[in-house]
Structures are given as C-alpha cells and as structure tokens.
Specification:
Elements (H helix, E strand, L loop, with lengths): L1 H35 L5 H22 L4 E7 L9 E5 L6 H9 L5 E5 L8 H7 L3 E3 L1 E2 L1 H4 L1 E2 L3 H14 L4 E3 L19 H9 L2 E8 L15 E7 L10 H17 L2 H4 L3
Parallel strand pairs: 1-9, 2-7, 2-8, 3-4, 3-7
Antiparallel strand pairs: 5-6, 8-9
Helix pairs in contact: 1-2, 1-4, 2-3, 2-4, 6-7, 7-8
Length: 265
C-alpha cells in the first residue's frame, strides 16, 4: 500500500513538473523566436528551440524526478564527424526523457508520432524545435503510416544531416514488448540515410527504462536506468544492411554488459 501511495505521489509530482516545464519552455521558445526572427533562418531558430526544450525536460524529468535514476556507464564519445545519427533501443515511453542527459550538451532532432505535436505546450515545443513528425493511421493496429508521411520525414532528416544537425532514432520502430529478450530487428530507413549522407552512427543502449513507465499503466515507478554510448561507427564503405547489422550488434553488446542484464544471466 505504501509503495502504491509513493508511486501515485511521485507520478503526480513528476507529471506536474514536466507540464509546467513545457509551459516555461514554450514561453521561452516564443520569446527566442521573436528576438531571433530578423537575424536568423528557420532552422537556426528551431535548433535553439530544441536546446531550450531538451534542457527544460532534462531538469524536470531527470534532475528533480524522485522516481528515476539514470546511470551513464559509458559517456557519449568524441566525434570527428559532426554529421551523426544516434541509434537507441526502445523500451518505454520514458526513453526520450531519459536519453536527453547522456546526449548533452548536444541536441538532436527526434523522430516523433505526429499525434504528439498536438499535445498542449509539449507538442508545440516539439514543432518549434523542428522535430521530425511521422503521421500514423489506424491500419496495422495503429502503426500504419499516412501516405507520404515517412518520405516527408526522411527528407527533413536528410536536410538536418546535410547541415550537420544530428538526429536521434529508435530503429526498432516501436517499444520492445519483451525487454528481457533480444532487440527487435532494426529497420533499414535511417541506415540507408546514414550511408547516403556519409553520417556516423553512435549506438546507445538502455536497460531498465521499461520499469520507469510500465506499459499499460498511467503511473510512473521507481527505477534505475543504465545507459551506454558506444564507439562511433562510420557509414563509409557500408551498405545500409551491413551498417544496420553492425549497429544492432553494438547496441546488443552494450546492453548485455549492463549490471541489470548481467545479474539475470
């Protein structure tokens, strides 16, 4: 009973903090856009808005969150190539919040469900930040995509990489239904893009985040999340298939080295 009360209290506190943070981030973004408008391009304004939104989320969802603890086992590597894609495994709706800290001070454009852009303040912040939208339909159990939506998103992602703006993706596509099992097969799309643009791919592995926000439950829960950032993998000389396989292998090895994974073997 006490644990349930603590979960409810922690969820309400964290949820309120996150929402208030979105309001603050949106106001700061709009002021920034107004100030920068005469002397900047849309992409420059979006990049600054992205930094604002991510830092506010890092503060509200990680630093003052009483439920979640993130342990960075391997920090983000130094990169020679400024054009890069961060490829992560996906376990929970909490993952985007949990992955902000390990990437700082860098900011990526994130691939998001189109419906999230309609969420008051938070979704408006995503739009201001120029994050990448995929429109889903009711087909395929809710995972069908609106015609032209993926192509449009990939074109935006390519434009980002061409100006050395990194992107963050979950190549599994959806959350892994069996966190204790193997990764879902990585989809080719962003690896094809990495090969076309000669972008570096940075593998990042998470474990434990499925406990932060259990599937089918509105409440958060206390959990320790482990994050490891792997060595950068150049796309030069790879096909999309070979690059995908190499990155998936790297993420798997990183994840399997985490203390919570070793303890279950």
């Amino acid at each position: 009973m006490a644990n349930q009360v603590a979960r409810v209290a922690g969820t309400i506190f964290t949820g309120v903090c996150i929402f208030l943070g979105w309001i603050v981030a949106y106001i700061v973004q709009m002021i920034t856009i107004a100030v920068m408008y005469p002397v900047s391009t849309p992409s420059q304004r979006a990049d600054v808005c992205g930094h604002i939104f991510r830092r506010v989320n890092y503060f509200t969802a990680s630093l003052i969150n009483p439920l979640w603890s993130t342990v960075i086992l391997r920090p983000f590597p130094e990169l020679k190539n400024e054009k890069f894609v961060v490829a992560m495994n996906h376990l929970s709706n909490a993952d985007p919040w949990l992955c902000i800290g390990p990437l700082l001070p860098r900011d990526c454009k994130w691939v998001c469900k189109g419906s999230l852009f309609s969420v008051p303040f938070g979704g408006w912040c995503l739009a201001n930040a120029g994050d990448l939208k995929v429109e889903f339909t009711s087909d395929k159990g809710g995972w069908g995509t609106k015609k032209g939506s993926v192509r449009s998103m990939m074109d935006q992602a390519k434009a980002c990489l061409q100006r050395n703006q990194p992107i963050a993706v979950y190549p599994e596509g959806v959350r892994n239904f069996t966190p204790a099992g193997p990764l879902n097969e990585f989809k080719l799309g962003f690896f094809t893009l990495a090969v076309e643009t000669e972008a570096t791919v940075v593998p990042v592995a998470l474990s434990g985040s499925e406990k932060c926000w259990p599937r089918g439950n509105w409440m958060f829960d206390a959990a320790t999340v482990y994050v490891s950032c792997g060595d950068p993998i150049s796309s030069v000389g790879h096909t999309a298939e070979s690059l995908r396989d190499k990155v998936q292998e790297a993420v798997t090895k990183l994840r399997d080295s985490h203390p919570d994974r070793v303890a279950t073997k």
